[in-house]
Backbone:
């Protein structure tokens, strides 16, 4: 059964339609305040350190990165996951794309290879394009990953910002919204039930068939990955799913009304605050100094933006644009360790508290050695400093 809208849900969706994102600006309506959520969870003893992770799309945009063979790039990626585990990071996510620049069309396979070489890091998709996938097969893949990793698998599912998977797998873009709603409903039904009874419009019905294997974790963690669509925030809150917000441009604080909307929807649906976790996926990179980080990251970042600018109607990015995004409120987490720690603290405060933040570094096609060094710096300098500052702020 698909998610039904109660009168309260309808009111929230009405509010959602009053939220607009234009030129990086959100025009909010009065909503459940983030500070109330933060103070309530602190009073209930639910304040926990922010988890810090890495996300990768296994992407290559420039001539130097494309010169590395696909085989070596995938091996490098598994080595980066292993290094992140050794550096003490909390999660590593692999995206899903189906185009020439990327090698992440089968994220569960890459994560399974990493599972055999890691011990504690959470292994997740970032995101699984559920609209163009079979929920039964997706669940089986990540349940298998969970068994291999001894309970470290997660999924972030979403509709995806790229559309190449739809014609590739025979789906119509006209069904973009209904495909996701129906398949998310089925995925959650499979997570809850070993034998599944379900019917929908886009897939053959299940009449009690068993879905195997079952994961070690019960339930298998499923996050909802969202961009800037208010209805998606309401959906996540109503279902009580943790939220992963992709904030790749503009000012991070502008997303607060949407996150408030998520928390209000969750509260109205009866979900506890600790269940309504918020994660942020950000473009970022850390080096020894601000100048080094900016100079390393910008060239590849500009090429990555240019590679999708025409199809999405974006203009070319300038160094001035990039530097502005690195500023106090900008979304980019590019700088020295101290600078990035301060910015994560500001982002968390502006959004009313976050549970996880992931760096997307390979968008700039940095060499493997620089990515390995950045992973080490994040794990050994950013994470300890961030947790120290959070503990002091929470006293």
Residues:
């Amino acid at each position: 059964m698909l998610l039904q809208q109660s009168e309260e849900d309808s009111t929230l969706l009405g509010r959602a339609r009053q939220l607009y994102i234009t030129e990086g600006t959100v025009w909010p309506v009065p909503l459940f305040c983030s500070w109330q959520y933060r103070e309530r969870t602190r009073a209930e003893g639910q304040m926990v350190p922010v988890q810090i992770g890495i996300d990768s799309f296994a992407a290559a945009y420039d001539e130097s990165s494309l010169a590395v063979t696909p085989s070596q790039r995938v091996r490098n990626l598994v080595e980066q996951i292993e290094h992140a585990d050794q550096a003490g990071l909390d999660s590593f996510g692999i995206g899903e794309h189906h185009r020439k620049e990327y090698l992440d069309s089968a994220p569960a396979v890459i994560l399974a290879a990493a599972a055999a070489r890691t011990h504690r890091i959470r292994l997740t998709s970032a995101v699984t394009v559920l609209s163009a996938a079979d929920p039964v097969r997706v669940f089986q893949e990540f349940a298998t990953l969970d068994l291999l990793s001894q309970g470290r698998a997660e999924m972030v599912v979403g509709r995806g910002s790229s559309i190449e998977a739809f014609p590739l797998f025979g789906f119509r873009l006209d069904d973009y919204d209904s495909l996701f709603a129906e398949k998310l409903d089925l995925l959650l039904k499979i997570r809850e039930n070993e034998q599944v009874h379900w019917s929908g419009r886009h897939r053959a019905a299940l009449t009690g068939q068993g879905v195997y294997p079952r994961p070690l974790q019960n339930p298998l963690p499923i996050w909802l990955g969202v961009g800037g669509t208010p209805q998606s925030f309401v959906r996540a809150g109503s279902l009580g799913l943790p939220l992963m917000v992709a904030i790749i441009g503009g000012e991070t604080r502008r997303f607060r009304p949407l996150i408030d909307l998520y928390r209000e929807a969750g509260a109205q649906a009866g979900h506890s605050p600790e269940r309504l976790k918020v994660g942020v996926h950000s473009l970022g990179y850390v080096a020894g100094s601000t100048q080094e980080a900016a100079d390393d990251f910008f060239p590849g970042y500009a090429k990555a933006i240019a590679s999708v600018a025409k199809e999405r109607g974006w203009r070319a990015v300038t160094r001035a644009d990039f530097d502005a995004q690195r500023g106090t409120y900008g979304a980019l987490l590019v700088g020295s360790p101290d600078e990035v720690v301060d910015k994560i603290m500001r982002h968390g405060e502006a959004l009313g508290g976050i549970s996880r933040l992931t760096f997307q570094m390979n968008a700039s096609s940095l060499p493997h050695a620089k990515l390995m060094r950045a992973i080490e710096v994040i794990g050994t300098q950013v994470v300890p400093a961030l947790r120290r500052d959070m503990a002091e702020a929470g006293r």
About this structure: The longest helix spans residues 368-393. The chain has one domain: 9-126+221-393. The two ends are 45 Å apart (CA to CA). DSSP finds 14 helices and 14 strands in the chain.
